[in-house]
């Protein structure tokens, strides 16, 4: 009589929060061993590896989306470092989210993400960060490269003093008689 082993059940990710996509090289893909962490691994080497993984996550372009996904998929992330958090930290975050948003906190977060995306699509595109050249100059600003002479420094101080005298407003503690 032979026993047939039952295959483990496939755990599917929560489809309301998708794992973020990027083509950028990520530390979790290039050095996955840094992110492997089991409960009870507390040696000096383990703690150094965890800190290395958390530091790598701090510069990750998808860390926020990765954290949302890891929080929403408890069964798929029982161990390891995900978005600079350990399993224990993620458990605490899930509990706080549940207290704040209720049992279906994943649905609340997903809905907020959809609303945010809808509003960002409705917004006009951001202006070009490169400032146009000033109308009084024929080209864009070039920083001053020559040293400022003593005469230029004196002239700048005089102009600054003149500007401060002509636009001076009384301070809240001064009376009008003290200013004039």
UniProtKB/TrEMBL annotation:
Region (Disordered), start-end ranges: 116-180
Keywords on record: Plasmid
PROSITE patterns: 4FE4S_WBL (PS51674)
Pfam families in the record: Whib (PF02467)
Domain of life: Bacteria
Domain 4Fe-4S Wbl-type: 27-92
Biased composition (Polar residues): 136-154
Positions with biased composition (Low complexity): 165-180
InterPro entries: 4FE4S_WBL (IPR034768)
Protein name: WhiB family transcriptional regulator
């Amino acid at each position: 009589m032979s026993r047939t082993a039952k295959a483990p059940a496939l755990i599917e990710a929560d489809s309301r929060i998708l794992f973020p996509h990027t083509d950028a090289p990520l530390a979790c893909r290039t050095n996955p061993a840094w992110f492997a962490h089991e409960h009870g691994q507390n040696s000096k080497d383990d703690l150094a590896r965890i800190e290395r993984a958390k530091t790598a996550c701090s510069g990750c372009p998808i860390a926020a989306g990765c954290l949302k996904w890891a929080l929403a998929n408890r069964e798929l992330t029982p161990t390891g470092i995900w978005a600079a958090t350990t399993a224990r930290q993620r458990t605490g975050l899930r509990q706080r989210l549940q207290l704040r948003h209720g049992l279906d906190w994943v649905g609340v977060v997903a809905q907020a993400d959809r609303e945010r995306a809808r509003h960002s699509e409705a917004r006009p595109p951001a202006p070009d960060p490169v400032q146009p050249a000033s109308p009084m100059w024929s080209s864009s600003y070039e920083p001053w490269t020559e040293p400022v002479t003593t005469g230029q420094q004196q002239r700048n101080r005089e102009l600054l003093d003149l500007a401060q005298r002509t636009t001076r407003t009384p301070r809240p503690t001064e009376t009008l008689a003290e200013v004039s």
